[in-house]
Amino acid sequence: FSQALSKVFINMEQTLPLRFKWNPPLHGLWLRTMMVFSMDQYRSDPVQRCHNHIATNSVSNQNVDERILRHVVRCTHPDSIYEENNGHMSVSVPLSTPQPGSLYVPLGFQFFCKNSCSSGMNRRCTELVFTLETAQRQVIGRRILKVRVCSCPKRDKDKEEQESNGPVNLIPGKKRKLPGLSHPPPGKKPLSGNSSTGQHDTREYNITLKIPGKDNARAILNYAFDRLAGESLRTGAFPSLSPYIEEINKKIHDMK
């Protein structure tokens, strides 16, 4: 767990132990858990397992109910109920009151696909949404936990923490030169950058494409958004890249 990012990094099929506490400790409540994409432009897309991990010959799918196979998140509670609504999958668990002498209810969760799987989550950031519900499905509480399922949790944790702290010096004792962060004057194009010196290329290119299929066009826009958003984090040039990111994001929303 990264304290700096408030985010869990975990291996696939490893159990994530969590403790749940609510006040007042009413009886008969349910906990619903759903994995969603963190970024707004993917929020409506369901989180699903990739083709390889959902295959029936996969070891993790042996002796598993077919209704559970598509779920990325599973709960170790024996009375877990798995549901699907328009492709969005969740698992609900009946919450008993804490045992005498305890203030919380422990639950374990496992993940059966990775964020890096290209035919599944496709490197998109994810988070768990926990909702406290009555038996009539009235939501009375909500919490969110950022999660990344990966092969090397420590490596990915260290990498994301470094990126969140801004660019780091590549050579001890020497500062890395950063590109300008100010917006170009009205009617002027940004100054050209030199990628060989570590600066990002700020020259503008007008591209007109005709793409067959709405899903294909949206995928290309999503890639462009992720590309620029990632560069803004790596270089610290968000102010200068923000207008382009916002324009792409608007085009994505206009297609929905």
Automatic annotation (TrEMBL):
Family per record: Belongs to the p53 family.
Region: Disordered, residue numbers: 155-200
A Pfam entry, by short name: P53
Gene3D superfamilies referenced in this protein's UniProt entry, alphabetically: 2.60.40.720
Protein name per its UniProtKB record: p53 DNA-binding domain-containing protein
Recorded superkingdom: Eukaryota
Cofactor: binding comment: Binds 1 zinc ion per subunit.
Residues reported in the UniProt entry to bind Zn(2+): C50, H53, C113, C117
BP-aspect Gene Ontology terms: apoptotic process
Entry keywords, A to Z: Activator, Apoptosis, DNA-binding, Metal-binding, Nucleus, Transcription, Transcription regulation, Zinc
A molecular function (GO) term: RNA polymerase II cis-regulatory region sequence-specific DNA binding
Cofactors demanded by this protein: Zn(2+)
Main location: nucleus
Cellular-component GO terms for this entry: nucleus
Originating organism: Bracon brevicornis
Record-annotated p53 DNA-binding domain positions: 1-163
Protein location: Nucleus
Listed SUPFAM superfamilies: p53-like transcription factors
